[in-house]
Amino acid sequence: LQNFSPTHLAIDLIMPSLDGIGVIRKLSEIDIDVSVIIVSGADPRVLDAARRSANEHGLRVAGVLRKPFRRKELVAALTVDPDARDRLVSSGPGHEGYKSALEYKIQEAFERDLIKIALQPKVSLLDGKLVGFEALARWTGENGLPIEPDQFVPAVESAGLIGRLTEVVLEKSLTWANGCGNHKNFSIAINVSALSLQTDHILQMIDGMCEEYKFSPDRLIVEITESEAVSHHTDALDVITQLRLRKIDLSIDDFGVGYSSLVQLARLPFSELKIDRRFIAELTTSHEAHAIVVAILGMARGLGLRTIAEGIEDLETYNTLQALGCDSAQGFFIGRPMSPEAASRWIE
Ligand code: C2E
Ligand code: MG
Ligand code: MG
Fold this sequence. Notes:
A hairpin with a 5-residue loop joins strand 4 (about 115-125) and strand 5. The protein has an eight-stranded mixed barrel, surrounded by five helices. The protein is about 45% helix and about 20% strand. It is an alpha/beta fold. The protein binds ligand C2E and magnesium ion (2 copies).
């Protein structure tokens, strides 16, 4: 490495005779200026832990790629501005000031208002009518290629900017909803990181936005992923409860793939359960997926939770969910995430 001096080094986490974490540790001990790209087929949580480990060892992480990855993901990792020289500001390994190149890019994206939203419709499975939109963050890199939320949201979190992301997404969503005039009753769902539920800043932010845009809080849905919601369960309980007190709906996103126990779930005051799209994708072809969805729907009914399925890509899946009594539906079959302008046309 010292002779070759590459700009980037892709490290697989699982290799025949050594593991990537060991390599990361070794790299931090030698004096080498290289951007690391972590590549693995491992679970996303493992990848995330590896990224954190590399950060803490003072390495510059240009990207984290889950195998199989797409070409554009690799391109995005390779084109993160190498001049955002960031092997660190003050001090190096493990210090607060450390930011990855991606984190610098994100900070800049906020400053230049480059974070946009896409809106994806949800319909009632009772009558097919529009019930609301989910707002999803969108970021297009300088090369014109989109950077996936799954890639930048963790970096936004580690850059300490997650509150800002929620605020930007909410503000753009409410600005749009406000301009929609006649169609005043659909809901807006935003994704909130469990990190944001550690303090009550989010409550003041939401209060202020709803006030400013004359948006009734009972039209707002906050989506939190199951595993996160439960792992930060005690800290989050207060804020979750305070959101419910404002009549804001709370949805458990990606339900079924996390690690929560039923007891924990029943204790948190959620109002909606959103079945993970991995089950929905296989609903009509896998006996197991079908059984799981039936069980989830039964459990939700028992707990008095509304149900929504995400990732519906065809009519057969749509019909099956309708027959199983799921309340609402979201997915490419109904509508892809789209720009606010396109969403306005979609409503018409
Ligand atoms: P999510 O909240 O579960 O969002 C649904 C994801 O499924 C979106 O991916 C959407 O584009 C995709 N999707 C929708 N319908 C279909 C379908 O029929 N088939 C398939 N294959 N996919 C479908 P996206 O936009 O890439 O977002 C990924 C995740 O990033 C989101 O998952 C959410 O957890 C997170 N995210 C997005 N925006 C934000 C944000 O503003 N804040 C936070 N904290 N997280 C966000
Ligand atoms: Mg969501
Ligand atoms: Mg989801």
